[in-house]
Amino acid sequence: MKKYIAAVSMLVGTIVGVGMFGLPYVTNQVGFLPIILIYFPALGLLVLAVHLIYGEVCLRTDGFHRLPGYCQIYLGKTSEKLAIASALIGFLGSLLAYLILGGQFLAGLLIPSLGGNELVYVLIFFFLGSLIVFLENKGIAKAEFYSLILLFGALIFLVIKGFPQINVSHLLTYQFQNPFLPYGIILFSLGGLSVIPELEDLLADKANQLKSVIIVGTLIPIITYIVFIVLALGINGSNVTEDALTGMQAVLGPNILIAGFIVGIMATFTSFLTVGQTLKEVLRYDLKFSHFSSWVIACFIPLILYLAGFKNFIGIIGFVGAITIAADGVLVFLIYLKAKKTGTVKPAYQINLPNWLSYLIIILFLAGAVIEIL
Question: Would the pTM of this model clear 0.70, i.e. be above it?
């Protein structure tokens, strides 16, 4: 039972992150009812299918691998390079999103007492984060776990305090002026593919639990997101902001939201450390860059992009979600089709997805990526 809970926690901790803060804003653009009746059921099921299929691939293959490794085994060198390119784009885009949102939360917390402007706090966030990534602090993973606990604690606190302020009429509106907007953001907020090989390794002696872990660990974030959307949109309605929290300050008051800002800062900061460290290791060990060059690329490219004007948090996570999650999803399904025929191990569970449905999902992912680019 302890391993099961640990595995679910790992998946939930990987999925729940900064994407949550952008969901109330995009929900306001299309309406609450379409989001919970159409978008989350459809995209949640799609992401769950990718997670389950990837879990089956892990179980069908000897040894511990990550997506580029599975690509090399089943699809060849070209797909391995595509998987690495997707990972690099995803990591850099995510780091940029953490920088934007972390700076906003830090500014929201400290400007009322210390003054200054948002750029100052973005630079403070960046220099502290990049320094720790350079020093390779071993406590990063533990900090990520504790920040997740604080995030859920703060969410419960905000729900208790904010529930009386919810206006149900804010949740009954809908519009389809930009129906594709939630696509990439929801995919970004639900992506947990990278940790599934870790789950398979953790549950090595209880592989039959992997399917349940993936289902539960994917559903908990969806429920969490819907609760947060109800809270933020129900309180602010059309005045909801892109980061959700700053808009709630006017209704709930600055003192109550201090806790929200602190947890938002911790969530973005620990995610910046985790992803920055992971990207640095990919560059250093997989692509053979030096330690210093890996650090510069991982940390300074997001800062350069920010200073160059890439500050649209919603646009960035939408692009990253639609492009990189789509690329990874396509690769996973292609690997799955091959692994069903050539996998060396009988898996603890099988999804038995028809080939025609796999190809249909691949087409949908590709179509979504094209629409996002256009």
Answer: yes
